[in-house]
Design a protein that fits this description.
Blueprint: H1 4-27, H2 29-36, H3 40-49, H4 54-57, H5 61-68, H6 70-90, H7 94-123, H8 128-136, H9 138-157, H10 159-180, H11 198-231, H12 236-261, H13 267-284, H14 291-302, H15 306-310, H16 322-351, H17 355-388
Helix pairs in contact: 1-3, 1-7, 1-8, 1-9, 1-10, 1-11, 3-16, 5-6, 5-7, 6-7, 6-10, 7-8, 9-10, 9-12, 11-12, 11-16, 11-17, 12-14, 13-14, 13-17, 16-17
Length: 389
């Protein structure tokens, strides 16, 4: 496989299986609650476990890929994901579900970090923004497909069929990668430059926090949205289809938002306006008689700030410290994404309403422009210091 666009398509499919696997728990949350006699806090914990390994693995992820080779590392990640899902499919003990989910998350993080680097290798010379925007869409695409397919499968065949399907898709993607893909030969990069200054570390941390808060907030919709609609009298199957619609809409709005961000004077205004409007819509979902219309509006707006947010770390990192800086960025992101569903699940369990999780997500969206303001003030100060020097 020599065409970089074909490579992008292949890596898109491989990463889609990660998103599908991640959503497999939330898509059949009510089924798991019934089968294992657990509550929303337990489902929230199981959702968050998938991303928890990223807190540890994201930082050294690039080094792992360099040691084993990118293709081999992704295949190892797929194998771990496969084993974790098989454990969940065969087990009827909750503790084994937790262990299997943690394994799938370890493999998923390895796949995510290294496959992102692989896309960068193929598109570093040109069209990197377009490639990354398309690659980023594999996440909402995989989750949307899961929401369409898995609720009805879970109701009809049970959770075992759902987890076997997720394992089969990962295995198929791994086989395709093994037989079709060849690592691109790239020039050796110089060793990491001097340690990053504290100000740069803080800026990258804030950028990672913004990205983490945003994604955690969006995750509240596709993690607890089905339960919210069920509380309003919807069936689980139709609820999954409605929530998946949000993800289908973001597939179009994420690249459109990135295109817009490259052409507006202030990316900060785009981020702030989009997140505030999205927060209001999320808060309105459980309080309106027309949740479908509100969710459609939410899907149209929530994808817009993604591209501008992903550009934040690049605006403060230099080539010699970009690898380490992005490691910090993704570590903060994974920390937020792993803790968010757990906190939301506990809040929902405390109030007895899944809608509380959406309120929590709305609050996270409101926090994004607040953190962004601190980021921009600190960045302006850093730029002023460089000019003075």
């Amino acid at each position: 496989m020599t065409s970089r666009w074909h490579v992008l398509g292949l890596l898109f499919l491989v990463r889609t299986t990660m998103a599908f696997q991640f959503e497999s728990v939330a898509a059949i949350g009510p089924v798991l609650q019934r089968e294992f006699n657990v509550g929303l806090p337990d489902i929230g914990m199981l959702i968050g476990l998938y991303l928890l390994p990223g807190v540890v693995i994201a930082l050294p992820g690039g080094a792992i890929g360099r040691a084993l080779g990118d293709k081999r590392t992704v295949l190892v990640g797929c194998a771990i994901m496969f084993v974790g899902n098989v454990i969940m499919a065969f087990s009827d003990v909750w503790a084994a579900q937790v262990g299997g989910r943690l394994l799938t998350g370890i493999g998923g993080v390895v796949l995510n970090v290294v496959s992102t680097k692989m896309v960068a290798d193929w598109f570093a010379e040109r069209e990197i923004a377009t490639a990354m925007a398309l690659f980023l869409n594999s996440w909402p695409f995989g989750i949307a497909v899961a929401l369409l397919a898995l609720p009805s499968l879970g109701v009809a065949e049970g959770y075992k069929a759902v987890f076997f399907l997720a394992a089969d898709l990962v295995g198929a993607a791994a086989l395709l990668l093994a037989f079709v893909y060849k690592d691109r030969v790239v020039e050796s990069f110089p060793k990491e430059g001097p340690r990053m200054e504290r100000q740069t570390i803080l800026l990258v941390t804030l950028a990672g926090l913004i990205w983490g808060l945003f994604n955690t907030a969006i995750a509240m919709v596709f993690s607890f949205g089905i339960n919210v609609l069920i509380e309003q009298g919807w069936a689980i199957t139709s609820s999954g289809s409605v929530i998946s619609l949000v993800l289908w809409l973001t597939i179009f709005t994420v690249p459109l938002g990135g295109y817009t961000a490259d052409r507006v004077r202030s990316k900060g205004v785009l981020i702030a306006a989009s997140t505030v409007v999205a927060a209001l819509l999320m808060f309105a979902v459980p309080r309106t008689g027309y949740p479908l219309a509100v969710l459609i509006a939410f899907g149209l707006i929530c994808g817009f700030p993604a591209g501008a947010m992903m550009a934040l770390p690049a605006s403060v990192l230099k080539p010699q410290n970009r690898a380490g800086g992005m490691g910090i960025f993704f570590t903060v992101f994974y920390l937020a994404m792993s803790l968010g569903p757990v906190i939301a699940g506990r809040l929902a369990g405390y109030t007895g309403r899944a809608a509380t999780a959406l309120d929590f997500g709305a609050g996270l969206l409101v926090a994004c422009p607040i953190v962004l303001a601190g980021f921009m003030v600190l960045r302006e100060g850093a730029l002023a210091n460089e000019i003075a020097v």
